[in-house]
Amino acid sequence: MNATIALLHKRRSVPPALLEGPGPAPEQLDDLLRAASRVPDHGKLAPWRFLVIEGEAGRRIGETLAATHAADFPDADAARLDVERQRLTQAPVVVGVVSRARPHVKIPEWEQVLSAGAVCMNLVVAANAAGFGTSWLTEWYSYDRRILDALGLEPFETMAGFVHIGHPRDTLSDRPRPDLADIVTRL
Ligand SMILES: Cc1cc2nc3c(=O)[nH]c(=O)nc-3n(C[C@H](O)[C@H](O)[C@H](O)COP(=O)(O)O)c2cc1C
Known about the structure:
The chain is an alpha+beta fold and 187 residues long. The chain contains seven helices and five strands; from the N terminus they run αβαβααβαβαβα. Strands 1, 2, 3, 4 and 5 form a five-stranded antiparallel sheet that branches. α2 packs across α5. The radius of gyration is 18 Å and the shape is globular. Bound molecules: flavin mononucleotide. The site of flavin mononucleotide has 9 residues, from β4.
């Protein structure tokens, strides 16, 4: 079977807690981001951008996540706050994909959003092809304006997701996949 098709057939998400270093070196990461940004993009708007989060940046954002969670849930215990602190520090590299979709005279916003999803998936596939494991996650902080401000998103920008990249510590069993008969209509 063709290697790309085989990869698509067997790829599994790997939770960030199971992704260890080393992550992609800077040049390799650039290569992955270049591959990720080569997506269908109606109107050549490039309605997306990347946030690269490594090391100290992940710890700094983690403190903001913990502080925001503590403000919303004053009874949160130390273990719960640690969960927030570690959100973006477990995998060696986390790439945030920002959607810059906005009203356009010709290109529907929906198509711009889909293009950002394609960027995420291209990054997932490219990183897996390069031998890494990945997880594409959003979680609450992708939808919290306080966090988006801390990440430097403009008011119209949204998070398409965070792609966590590292080396899988373990292999995961598969999960059920939809039957083609349930999702295919031949017209
Ligand atoms: C936009 C988007 C956001 C997601 N956010 C989360 C999330 O916040 N938490 C989560 O457990 N899974 C999330 N997932 C699902 C995982 O990426 C993944 O699909 C799931 O863990 C199943 O793994 P698989 O890729 O091996 O099928 C999200 C998927 C998408 C497409």
